[in-house]
Design goal:
The complex is a heterodimer of chains A (about 240) and B (about 500). Chain A is of the alpha/beta class. Chain A folds into 2 domains: about 40 residues, no CATH class; about 200 residues, Rossmann fold (3-Layer(aba) Sandwich). In chain A, about 30% of the residues lie in helices and about 15% in strands. In chain A, the strands form 3 sheets. Chain A has a 4-stranded parallel beta sheet. Chain A has a two-stranded antiparallel ribbon with strand order 1-2. Chain B has about 500 residues and is an alpha/beta fold. In chain B, the strands form 6 sheets. Chain B has a 7-stranded parallel beta sheet with strand order 11-12-10-13-14-9-15. A 6-stranded parallel beta sheet of chain B has the order 16-21-20-17-19-18, sandwiched between helices. In chain B, strands 1-2 form a two-stranded antiparallel ribbon. The N and C termini of chain B lie far apart (about 70 Å). Classes of the chains: A alpha/beta (about 240), B alpha/beta (about 500). The interface between A and B is medium-sized, with 16 and 16 residues.
Chain lengths: ~240, ~500
């Protein structure tokens, strides 16, 4: 271990003071990515949550809870057009102000290296489940050119994983500028690339944020209609 | 994106076989100016003196390319390599760990980008920086330029003359003016003289608050002149104006734009620690231009350069109201941090505070660290429940400062965040733990400069409570006394 190497926090740029102790000396050195202060500002999603979308019941009014489902998922699952496409969603962090700030820098300002922050969480999630295909939610070509990279794909690549791209996205207005109703009632925004084997596959979709879940459900629907066996999703936050 | 070099002209081209990211092209050819080309005047207004990204320009690439081919636009490499080390052309960053890389969908390669100036839009190895090479827009000059009718003090007048001289001769000048000297007015004649000569002027300051405060004052002084006010998120982003007031960060978007640059508070954070801002200021001025530095507290290096004649400077040693600067008193207060651990404060500090509360005299109390300040707050609130504390990340900072101005707060505890820029008319000032490293000579002079600002209350008490005098404290007091003596000698102080 190099005592003179000073790692800088990827978020706040402060020098990270490594914790000294027997463990630090005898165990393999973990690359220091962010400082403990910034790390402390991320809140993991923990506690009782919706069986499908991982929404925490803790912050949800009882009226919007239906057994082990939240009101939104209950609505999706009652709708014959949408029922059963997305098997489940897992989200890692709470979409708090700090997360928003980090995401804005990563995605909109285009600070690609911030993808590294999420590597550990992605790897931990994949210890528990082994999908056949890792599919990042695609950006339209226009948006991809504008941003320079796809944020979901970036996280996979930085985790040392290989993304599969069976979906393409038709260019439309930014999601974040639409209401829930508008998002749900838009026609299919994705197209499937039939060159890629999907039939019978267990697929994990990856996206940055779960808001209404409509993007993920559109993608899941198309993949299942094209023969996928199981479609789960993982988002960095919700 | 990628460019193809063909017939000594760069052409945007997606084909990877022939085209290269701009940083990999040895020399960027610049087509000569075609005088018959009908250039777009909107593009001229937007781009004159700037260095922007394609994403900043609301014009199609075709149009930009035609302007380039006719010599009206320049393409520069976003990232240059000097001895195989990358340097960001916009902010001058060359520190390795301030660069990142990513698989870029624009050039299809692993592309290096600058993290230092990312907030102004990402510059990567395949990014061209776009500039203007055509004629600059014409200023239309109104009949009357400076409408300010005020009277300069003697000290201000002689500094003002030096500023005018410097502007006209395209030189550099440091204006060393004490806190409360009235340095804005000192600039007016120099700005007028530049505008008359159809020169472009910029006033840059480290903080947005100051841009917001200066803008209306300059608009009032130069009512017929277009003034662009630039800070993060401001609406004037694309406005071409003869007079620009900007945060130093915004200078990153300019390139050889100004004939006169006035840099305010050159000793202040973040200008002093961010090399990129010093680089930005240097880039924003034309090769042939004047530079005026303003400060109340030049750092030691600059002070030495002034003393040894290596730096042109002028001082305004006295305040406009002709009273001397309050000289700080030093009061030893023992190990105050130890007392604070027991939720106590040394008796002399407490007495000082109680005296202010009894006499209804507002005061600012400076602490070296947030933690210590917050430890002291509950105890002090027992003396007066309205006492407040502020620090840099306090979301209610503005409200609390306003409450202090409205006299709703008897005593305001603060970190060094309020050391400059704020004026309360009638206050006393104390520093608790003046021995701390955070209180540099410069910080202490600024802090002392908070007292006695107004002509109705020109006196204020400044006390440094300390657990051992420091060099910085002594130098600060020496600097203040020295300025007062110079003020008396030059007849700028009435006693």
């Amino acid at each position: 271990m190099n005592l003179f190497h000073q790692a800088q926090c990827l978020i706040c740029h402060e020098i990270i003071q490594p914790l000294m102790g027997w463990r630090a000396i005898f165990s393999e050195e973990k690359e220091l990515i962010i400082c403990p202060t910034c790390e402390g500002k991320f809140e993991k999603i923990q506690g009782e949550k919706c069986r499908i979308c991982s929404r925490l019941f803790q912050f949800l009014d009882e009226r919007f809870r239906h057994g082990d489902l939240c009101h939104d998922c209950e609505r999706w699952e009652k709708d014959p057009e949408w029922k059963g496409y997305l098997d489940s969603n897992h989200s890692i962090f709470i979409y708090n102000d700090f997360f928003k700030e980090v995401m804005a820098k990563f995605k909109y300002r285009g600070d690609y290296v911030l993808a590294k922050i999420f590597v550990q969480s992605i790897k931990e999630f994949l210890w528990k489940t082994t999908p056949d295909l890792l599919v990042p939610i695609p950006l339209s070509n226009e948006r991809l050119y504008e941003r320079g990279f796809n944020q979901a794909e970036a996280v996979l690549i930085e985790s040392g994983l290989t993304p599969t791209i069976p979906l393409t996205r038709i260019h439309s207005e930014k999601q974040s500028k639409k209401s829930r109703l508008e998002r749900i009632h838009i026609p299919q925004v994705f197209q499937v690339d039939h060159q890629i084997e999907i039939i019978g596959k267990n697929i994990l979709l990856l996206d940055d944020i779960y808001t209404t879940g409509s993007t993920l459900r559109h993608a899941a629907k198309l993949l299942k209609e094209s023969g996928a066996e199981r479609v789960q999703s993982l988002t960095l936050a919700r | 994106m990628r460019f193809l070099l063909k017939d000594n002209i760069l052409i945007p081209e997606k084909n990877k076989e022939y085209a290269l990211p701009i940083s990999q092209i040895q020399t960027i050819p610049q087509p000569s100016l075609n005088p018959n080309f009908p250039y777009n005047p909107d593009l001229q207004l937007l781009l004159s003196g700037k260095q922007l990204l394609l994403d900043d320009l609301p014009f199609p690439l075709d149009e930009i390319q035609t302007h380039y081919e006719n010599g009206y636009i320049t393409y520069r490499k976003g990232i240059e390599y000097s001895r195989n080390k990358p340097v960001c052309s916009r902010c001058g960053n060359k520190t390795e760990n301030w660069f990142g890389q990513f698989p870029c969908s624009r050039c299809g390669e692993i592309c290096l980008y600058c993290r230092k100036c990312l907030m102004m839009g990402r510059i990567s190895a395949c990014t061209p920086l776009i500039g203007w090479n055509g004629p600059t827009p014409e200023h239309h000059l109104p009949n009357r330029i400076l409408e300010w009718k005020g009277q300069l003090s003697l000290g201000q007048q002689s500094a003002s003359n030096r500023v005018v001289e410097t502007v006209n001769n395209m030189k550099e000048l440091l204006v060393w003016a004490v806190c409360g000297a009235g340095k804005t007015e000192v600039l007016f004649a120099g700005i007028e003289s530049a505008l008359v000569a159809k020169k472009r002027v910029c006033i840059a300051t480290p903080r947005t608050d100051v841009v917001l405060e200066l803008t209306p004052r300059l608009k009032a002084a130069f009512p017929e002149i277009n003034v662009a006010s630039l800070y993060g998120g401001s609406e004037d982003r694309h406005l071409y104006a003869p007079l620009t007031i900007a945060t130093t960060h915004q200078l990153l978007r300019f390139y050889q734009a100004f004939d006169t640059v006035i840099l305010d508070e050159v000793d202040a954070f973040p200008y002093t620690v961010e090399e990129s801002l010093q680089y930005a200021a240097a880039q924003a001025r034309k090769p042939e231009s004047a530079m005026i530095y303003l400060t109340a507290t030049p750092n030691e290096k600059w002070q030495r350069e002034c003393r040894t004649g290596k730096r042109a400077f002028t001082t305004i040693p006295a305040r406009f109201h002709r009273y001397p600067l309050p000289v700080p008193h030093f009061n030893w207060c023992g190990n105050w941090q130890k007392e604070l651990k027991k939720d106590k404060l040394p008796a002399n500090i407490l007495n000082w505070i109680k005296a202010r509360l009894e006499n209804n005299k507002q005061a600012l109390l400076f602490f070296p660290h947030i933690r210590l300040m917050e430890k002291a707050l509950p105890g002090l609130r027992k003396l007066a429940p309205d006492i407040e504390a502020v620090h840099a990340e306090d979301p209610d900072r503005k409200e609390k400062v306003q409450k202090m101005r409205n006299k709703d707060i008897p005593l305001l505890l603060t970190t060094t965040i309020l050391e400059r820029g704020v004026t309360f008319p009638n206050i006393d000032v104390a520093v608790i733990g003046a021995e701390d490293d955070i209180f540099t000579e410069c910080a202490l002079v600024q802090i002392a400069g908070r007292a006695g600002r107004s002509k109705d209350f020109p006196r204020g008490i400044v006390t440094f409570f300390h657990y051992g005098k420091t060099e910085a404290m002594l130098k600060a007091r020496k600097q203040i006394i020295g300025m007062n003596q110079e003020g008396v000698r030059k007849g700028l102080i009435d006693e």
